# Entry
Amino acid sequence: ETGVTQSPTHLIKTRGQQVTLRCSSQSGHNTVSWYQQALGQGPQFIFQYYREEENGRGNFPPRFSGLQFPNYSSELNVNALELDDSALYLCASSLDRGKGELFFGEGSRLTVL
Amino acid sequence: RKEVEQDPGPFNVPEGATVAFNCTYSNSASQSFFWYRQDCRKEPKLLMSVYSSGNEDGRFTAQLNRASQYISLLIRDSKLSDSATYLCVVIFSGSARQLTFGSGTQLTVLP
# Structure
Protein backbone atom coordinates (compact mmCIF):
# COMPACT_ATOMS: atom_id res chain seq x y z
CA GLU A 1 0.00 0.00 0.00
CA THR A 2 1.00 3.64 -0.52
CA GLY A 3 0.79 4.77 3.10
CA VAL A 4 -1.62 7.55 2.11
CA THR A 5 -4.92 7.29 3.97
CA GLN A 6 -8.11 9.19 3.30
CA SER A 7 -11.31 9.55 5.26
CA PRO A 8 -14.17 9.09 4.98
CA THR A 9 -14.16 6.52 2.20
CA HIS A 10 -17.77 7.20 1.21
CA LEU A 11 -20.22 9.92 2.10
CA ILE A 12 -23.54 11.31 0.96
CA LYS A 13 -24.46 14.98 1.22
CA THR A 14 -27.26 17.15 -0.07
CA ARG A 15 -26.98 20.19 -2.29
CA GLY A 16 -25.90 23.30 -0.38
CA GLN A 17 -24.17 21.44 2.44
CA GLN A 18 -20.49 21.59 3.28
CA VAL A 19 -18.00 18.70 3.40
CA THR A 20 -14.51 18.15 4.81
CA LEU A 21 -12.30 15.38 3.50
CA ARG A 22 -9.09 14.33 5.22
CA CYS A 23 -5.77 12.93 4.08
CA SER A 24 -2.74 11.59 5.92
CA SER A 25 0.31 11.66 3.72
CA GLN A 26 3.04 9.08 3.47
CA SER A 27 5.69 9.41 6.17
CA GLY A 28 8.30 12.02 5.22
CA HIS A 29 6.26 13.57 2.40
CA ASN A 30 5.80 17.33 2.72
CA THR A 31 3.55 17.93 -0.29
CA VAL A 32 -0.10 17.02 -0.72
CA SER A 33 -2.13 17.40 -3.90
CA TRP A 34 -5.88 16.97 -4.26
CA TYR A 35 -7.63 15.72 -7.38
CA GLN A 36 -11.29 15.34 -8.35
CA GLN A 37 -12.27 12.38 -10.53
CA ALA A 38 -15.76 12.39 -12.02
CA LEU A 39 -17.17 9.13 -13.32
CA GLY A 40 -15.57 8.12 -16.61
CA GLN A 41 -13.01 10.92 -16.50
CA GLY A 42 -9.40 11.25 -15.49
CA PRO A 43 -8.52 13.01 -12.23
CA GLN A 44 -8.44 16.82 -12.34
CA PHE A 45 -6.01 18.85 -10.25
CA ILE A 46 -7.67 20.94 -7.54
CA PHE A 47 -4.67 22.32 -5.61
CA GLN A 48 -1.37 21.46 -4.00
CA TYR A 49 -0.05 22.26 -0.54
CA TYR A 50 3.63 22.43 0.32
CA ARG A 51 4.74 23.07 3.88
CA GLU A 52 1.31 24.38 4.89
CA GLU A 53 0.95 26.84 2.01
CA GLU A 54 -1.01 26.55 -1.23
CA ASN A 55 1.47 25.95 -4.05
CA GLY A 56 -0.71 25.87 -7.13
CA ARG A 57 -4.38 25.66 -7.95
CA GLY A 58 -6.39 24.21 -10.81
CA ASN A 59 -9.55 25.56 -12.36
CA PHE A 60 -11.82 25.17 -9.34
CA PRO A 61 -13.96 27.87 -7.68
CA PRO A 62 -13.09 29.39 -4.28
CA ARG A 63 -15.68 27.22 -2.52
CA PHE A 64 -13.01 24.50 -2.81
CA SER A 65 -10.46 25.25 -0.11
CA GLY A 66 -7.78 23.38 1.73
CA LEU A 67 -5.43 23.22 4.65
CA GLN A 68 -2.17 21.49 5.39
CA PHE A 69 -1.11 20.92 8.96
CA PRO A 70 2.39 20.88 10.51
CA ASN A 71 2.42 17.08 10.33
CA TYR A 72 1.70 17.45 6.57
CA SER A 73 -1.76 15.92 6.78
CA SER A 74 -4.37 17.85 4.82
CA GLU A 75 -8.03 18.70 4.51
CA LEU A 76 -10.16 19.54 1.49
CA ASN A 77 -13.26 21.60 2.22
CA VAL A 78 -16.07 22.15 -0.23
CA ASN A 79 -18.83 24.65 0.57
CA ALA A 80 -22.25 25.05 -1.02
CA LEU A 81 -22.17 21.59 -2.57
CA GLU A 82 -23.55 21.17 -6.08
CA LEU A 83 -24.71 18.01 -7.80
CA ASP A 84 -21.66 18.14 -10.11
CA ASP A 85 -19.37 17.88 -7.08
CA SER A 86 -20.25 14.18 -6.93
CA ALA A 87 -16.93 12.47 -7.61
CA LEU A 88 -14.01 10.53 -6.21
CA TYR A 89 -11.64 12.89 -4.39
CA LEU A 90 -8.06 11.70 -4.43
CA CYS A 91 -5.22 12.86 -2.27
CA ALA A 92 -1.63 12.33 -3.39
CA SER A 93 1.49 12.83 -1.31
CA SER A 94 4.99 13.46 -2.56
CA LEU A 95 8.27 15.09 -1.70
CA ASP A 96 9.13 18.70 -2.39
CA ARG A 97 6.26 20.05 -4.48
CA GLY A 98 5.79 16.89 -6.49
CA LYS A 99 9.32 15.97 -7.45
CA GLY A 100 9.40 12.25 -7.86
CA GLU A 101 6.47 9.92 -7.72
CA LEU A 102 3.08 10.87 -6.34
CA PHE A 103 1.42 8.28 -4.14
CA PHE A 104 -2.37 8.31 -4.17
CA GLY A 105 -4.75 7.36 -1.43
CA GLU A 106 -7.79 5.24 -2.22
CA GLY A 107 -10.01 8.29 -2.32
CA SER A 108 -13.18 9.60 -0.77
CA ARG A 109 -16.29 9.00 -2.85
CA LEU A 110 -18.72 11.88 -2.45
CA THR A 111 -22.32 11.72 -3.63
CA VAL A 112 -24.35 14.93 -3.64
CA LEU A 113 -28.12 14.51 -3.82
CA ARG B 1 -9.91 20.90 -26.80
CA LYS B 2 -8.64 18.87 -23.86
CA GLU B 3 -4.98 19.25 -22.92
CA VAL B 4 -4.43 15.48 -22.92
CA GLU B 5 -6.56 13.28 -25.17
CA GLN B 6 -6.88 9.52 -25.29
CA ASP B 7 -9.01 7.04 -27.16
CA PRO B 8 -11.50 5.97 -24.45
CA GLY B 9 -11.91 2.46 -25.83
CA PRO B 10 -13.00 0.07 -24.54
CA PHE B 11 -10.39 -2.30 -25.89
CA ASN B 12 -11.37 -5.96 -25.51
CA VAL B 13 -8.51 -8.28 -26.43
CA PRO B 14 -7.78 -11.98 -25.93
CA GLU B 15 -5.05 -13.16 -23.60
CA GLY B 16 -1.69 -13.07 -25.31
CA ALA B 17 -2.59 -10.24 -27.68
CA THR B 18 -0.56 -7.12 -28.23
CA VAL B 19 -2.42 -3.86 -27.67
CA ALA B 20 -1.38 -0.25 -28.16
CA PHE B 21 -2.77 2.93 -26.62
CA ASN B 22 -2.20 6.41 -27.96
CA CYS B 23 -2.31 9.80 -26.35
CA THR B 24 -1.85 13.33 -27.67
CA TYR B 25 -1.16 16.49 -25.69
CA SER B 26 -1.79 20.06 -26.66
CA ASN B 27 1.00 22.04 -25.05
CA SER B 28 4.45 21.77 -26.55
CA ALA B 29 5.97 23.19 -23.35
CA SER B 30 5.57 19.90 -21.57
CA GLN B 31 7.95 18.61 -19.00
CA SER B 32 7.26 15.02 -18.01
CA PHE B 33 5.14 12.15 -19.23
CA PHE B 34 3.75 9.07 -17.55
CA TRP B 35 1.35 6.20 -17.87
CA TYR B 36 -0.78 5.39 -14.83
CA ARG B 37 -2.98 2.38 -14.30
CA GLN B 38 -6.28 2.52 -12.44
CA ASP B 39 -8.20 -0.58 -11.44
CA CYS B 40 -11.97 -0.35 -11.07
CA ARG B 41 -12.91 1.85 -8.10
CA LYS B 42 -9.28 2.11 -6.94
CA GLU B 43 -6.67 4.85 -6.97
CA PRO B 44 -4.33 5.51 -9.93
CA LYS B 45 -0.90 3.94 -9.67
CA LEU B 46 2.21 4.82 -11.64
CA LEU B 47 2.88 2.26 -14.35
CA MET B 48 5.88 3.87 -15.96
CA SER B 49 7.52 7.14 -16.88
CA VAL B 50 7.95 7.95 -20.58
CA TYR B 51 11.29 9.15 -21.90
CA SER B 52 12.20 10.70 -25.22
CA SER B 53 14.37 7.74 -26.11
CA GLY B 54 11.54 5.31 -25.42
CA ASN B 55 11.63 2.87 -22.56
CA GLU B 56 10.60 -0.66 -21.77
CA ASP B 57 9.58 -2.43 -18.59
CA GLY B 58 8.98 -6.10 -19.16
CA ARG B 59 5.96 -6.46 -21.44
CA PHE B 60 5.33 -2.70 -21.47
CA THR B 61 6.93 -0.25 -23.89
CA ALA B 62 6.37 3.49 -23.82
CA GLN B 63 7.26 5.92 -26.59
CA LEU B 64 7.30 9.71 -26.76
CA ASN B 65 7.30 11.82 -29.92
CA ARG B 66 7.76 15.45 -28.88
CA ALA B 67 7.52 16.77 -32.45
CA SER B 68 4.06 15.21 -32.89
CA GLN B 69 3.10 15.68 -29.22
CA TYR B 70 2.23 12.02 -29.02
CA ILE B 71 2.72 9.30 -26.41
CA SER B 72 2.09 5.60 -26.77
CA LEU B 73 1.95 2.51 -24.60
CA LEU B 74 2.38 -0.99 -26.00
CA ILE B 75 1.46 -4.05 -23.99
CA ARG B 76 2.71 -7.38 -25.31
CA ASP B 77 1.43 -10.83 -24.32
CA SER B 78 -1.60 -9.42 -22.49
CA LYS B 79 -2.59 -11.04 -19.19
CA LEU B 80 -5.99 -11.10 -17.53
CA SER B 81 -4.45 -9.00 -14.76
CA ASP B 82 -3.72 -6.20 -17.25
CA SER B 83 -7.45 -5.39 -17.36
CA ALA B 84 -7.70 -1.82 -16.08
CA THR B 85 -7.98 1.79 -17.23
CA TYR B 86 -4.74 3.28 -18.52
CA LEU B 87 -4.30 6.99 -17.95
CA CYS B 88 -1.92 9.16 -19.96
CA VAL B 89 -0.43 11.88 -17.78
CA VAL B 90 1.53 15.02 -18.62
CA ILE B 91 3.22 17.56 -16.39
CA PHE B 92 3.27 20.88 -18.22
CA SER B 93 6.13 23.29 -17.64
CA GLY B 94 5.56 25.84 -14.92
CA SER B 95 2.54 24.04 -13.51
CA ALA B 96 3.77 23.39 -9.96
CA ARG B 97 4.19 19.77 -11.05
CA GLN B 98 0.48 19.16 -11.26
CA LEU B 99 -0.48 16.04 -13.15
CA THR B 100 -2.78 16.56 -16.13
CA PHE B 101 -4.61 13.32 -16.87
CA GLY B 102 -6.29 12.09 -19.99
CA SER B 103 -9.72 10.52 -19.59
CA GLY B 104 -8.23 7.03 -19.71
CA THR B 105 -8.46 4.04 -22.01
CA GLN B 106 -10.28 1.00 -20.69
CA LEU B 107 -8.71 -2.39 -21.40
CA THR B 108 -10.34 -5.76 -20.81
CA VAL B 109 -8.27 -8.87 -21.46
CA LEU B 110 -10.51 -11.84 -22.17
CA PRO B 111 -9.68 -15.50 -21.40
Remarks:
- Residues 36 and 73 of chain A are 18 Å apart (CA to CA).
